[in-house]
Fold:
Amino acid sequence: MSELKDKLFYKQKHVHDVLDEAERELSEAYCAKYMDYLQKARTERLAAREAIALAEKYGFHEFDRNAPLKAGDKIYRCVQGKLLLLAVMGTDSLEKGVNLCAAHIDSPRLDLKQIPLYEDHELAYFKTHYYGGIRKYQWVTIPLELHGVVALADGRTVDVNIGADPADPIFYVSDLLPHLAAKQSEQPLGKAIPGEKLNIIMGSCPLKGEEGDDRVKLGVMKLLNEKYGITEEDFLSAEIEAVPAYPVREAGLDRSLIAGYGQDDRVCAFAELQAIYETENPARTAVCILADKEEIGSVGVSGMMSEAFECFMGDLCDKQGVKLTHCFENSLCVSADVTNAFDPTWPEVSEVRNNSKLNYGVAIAKFTGRGGKSGSNDASAETMGRIRRIFAEANVAWQYAELGKVDEGGGGTVACYMGNRNIATVDAGTPVLSMHSPYEITAKYDCYMTYKAMKAVYASK
Structure:
């Protein structure tokens, strides 16, 4: 009977049980690189910038549509500093399609409003507008750091970075003390902290020698002007984000987990990056996409619905006299995005037979969406079979994933936008605990298997 069960039943295996000691060491080495990247990639701009710096060390160069292009060439294009496209040219014609891995590098956060600075009862604040699906109560009373760019009236841009250096001050959104929070505590969790109360404390000391109103605001503005040369009007052309100031750390006494902000979806983004960095002379051209705006619908020039992707791929196809539509219809895409890991503390929201778990490998999701798969790519059986074969041939530990019980909610990825382009697409990514929180958890083994999965996709024929 046990032999028949082994033959006919599907059984998941803990990654620890299928790795030898040598590959466990490779897993640790990979995760050390990932943690270093995650610490530096605090925003989508920083994620793209760090990826480019690493890519150039691996021999990538900025794509010039007027320069010749041959098999083995490693190229990249960055769009508005927030959408990064990389490719390693294959020996096969683009007519046969390409192997794509698409992740996103934006994460939930607090954005500054365009007129953010104000003073109230001798405290200076920044007004914010939250970005993406945050749980607002998680963003009060935590340390925050500021990153972004300011476009000045003369055309120059200034980078803003305050709070990442241990010598810098951090920033803070206050909350009520429990002694005075009786009415707040009666509110539903989603309404207890209104979005308009996510105001960041910037200072409390009046500018010396000034009289009248807004002395604290003026003091803060003076410090910003001295450091960055900006005035209040320059905030109108600024993108400044407040993100958690927590360091990336190993978690658990056995150090098997990684804790850090922005792992959705930079854990998959780095897996794609490291995999394409190491890809040499593939048969099919390998393409890595790091997109912006996924958390708000993949819109805009730097989002996955943008034609920036068609522009890049069209330029490559033009070099070989290939129609872009022919390239797309023969291509394979893995939408590399995270999924929820089963949480034994909150089992009631998951259908455990179909939910991914920590330490069981990269998670394949046939569909995402919500309310009857609405908004989902819903990969075909043939595409699912193809990705299974690719992973099996590369000894990639994988598991199946569904984002919670049918009626509990759901979510989306960039997969549907790739499918809309007539590209065979499937979701596969890393399971995460506490997704969209200021401090997310992943398992090292799953991070490593996600990297192996992306590398196998790039190498597949």
In short: The chain has eleven helices and 23 strands. The chain has two domains: 2-107+261-459, 109-244.
